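Please describe what follows:
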Amino acid sequence: MQSKVEPKYIFVTGGVLSSLGKGISSSSIATLLQASNFKVSILKIDPYINVDPGTMSPLEHGEVFVTADGAETDLDIGHYERFLNTSLNRQNNFTTGQVYLSVIENERAGKYLGKTIQVVPHIVDEIKARIKSVAKNYDFLVVELGGTVGDIEGMPYLEAMRQMKHELGNQRVISIHVTLIPYIKAAGEQKTKPTQHSVQELRRIGITPQIILARSEKPVSKDMKRKIALSCDVDDDSVIIAEDAPSIYACPLNFLKEGILSSIAKHFNLSPIIPNIESWDLLVKKIISPQHQITIGFVGKYLGLKESYKSLTEALIHAGAHMDTKIHIKWIDSEELNKETIDLLNDVDGILIPGGFGSRGIDGKILAISYAREKQIPFLGICLGMQLSIIEFLRNKANIKEANSIEFDKNTTQPAIYLIEDFIDRSGNAQIRTHHSPMGGTMRLGEYECKLQKDSVIYQSYGNCQTIKERHRHRYEANPKYRNILEENGMSICAEGKEGLIEAIEIKNHPFFVAVQFHPEFTSRLQNPNAIILAFAKKALEYKK
């Protein structure tokens, strides 16, 4: 293991427009360095004022990713974990809201000795302190700044970057700017002007990027690369073309071919950086050119923004790579699923019900669960998917027609899913939760241990492991008062938490009907797919054959 006494910082900024793939770019760079035997960590900075994304609608900002220590974070943290095959924590993502909250709390406590509190130095110093604390004991820290250069909310972070470069010097800090080379169809040309303007804006602030990572739909000529290098004042070989790839997991391989490690090594005056990435390459080949294909009916209600389910769709890709199988997702809006449209599920090899909040689209999900149970189609329910599986089973097998969740009807006479008002969280703190409690901070969040029932499907799926740890994000729980009724009618409670909470259910005499309260997608990695999702995909392939 190569080890450097002082951490080096790689700052990744974005220009021209958002959604260029800064998260994938940051993940790819970190993956290549990690594969070269460096100790690498990664940090996402979000300039929005929310304390965390936990109370945002998935349609607003995509998925909320939950770390093992219970932090609700930006979805890019999920990319980092999936690429680096590691678990990160709440330190690896912070927002403007958190920064200002810390500074204001310090001011209220008198820690600034009566001084006027300003963006410079107090906010910027807090930002720098947070960045440096994450970098401890690592050779490299990759820092991704959300948003686009020129956004007013990003200015304090760019100032922090500038100051760190000034304080630590070129041997410790590098700036990589992700920008766009648009193709103007009418003119039949690619244009570099947006990139030039974006770099000019950075330089006006006092930051000169050393590497330009140019996103493009089409190949970029050597002449155009030279033009970008000249106009942006970077070395010719430090213009890295990030052309659209058939899979995000191909990006590290493409960056390696473009020579990004050579540019990084040259800037930091290191010997050549050579990664061992053969196993990664093999998995990418199976993603791009698989031998088999299956179709999973994905019955969700946040389909207006597919990134609402990012970890889950990526987990299916991971499972497919290890099965040499293309997993085609058939998106089905649960609000549009009814008895007249149920034939939408006729051609699927498996049915998946993901998590969610609120009563919208619930009837369609329950109908899909009935279909999977009665037609003996492989089924996986996650979080809300487990709760609805219990409700469907009680209504249609145990003849408790009023079975419901108090999330949907707080006055239900049959609360199969209920709210534990006196709840002890994973830190051992008591929480009092009611229907009127704010959503933020009142959920069961993070990694919890659960015990699997021997010889159950889930026990076998996890390699006959009796105790597992998985991540949670929910407020409502399955009511244990209905346990005997469920088991008498053929549903097995196959996993429980240490607190006695129901963590997973199965239906006997079914090829594969499993539903879990936790979110297995949060622990799936390309190199290490989640066990229950992999088992579900394998059953779907068997069902198709």
Observations:
- The radius of gyration is 25 Å.
